[in-house]
Amino acid sequence: MFHLTFALPSLYVLARFLWPLPWAPGGKVILAIVLLMASQYHL
């Protein structure tokens, strides 16, 4: 089950720090998925 309470801080990190990086879009998407999975793991 996806918990929004734990996903919101990771979405903030994605929007604020990950997207402005000058990386390839594929790398950003993979890192975003890993970050969201890690946020859900802590539950």
From TrEMBL:
Keyword Membrane: yes
Transmembrane residue ranges: 20-38
Domain of life: Bacteria
Protein's organism: Microvirga lotononidis
The protein's name in its UniProt record: Uncharacterized protein
Lineage: Bacteria, Pseudomonadati, Pseudomonadota, Alphaproteobacteria, Hyphomicrobiales
Keyword terms, alphabetized: Membrane, Transmembrane, Transmembrane helix
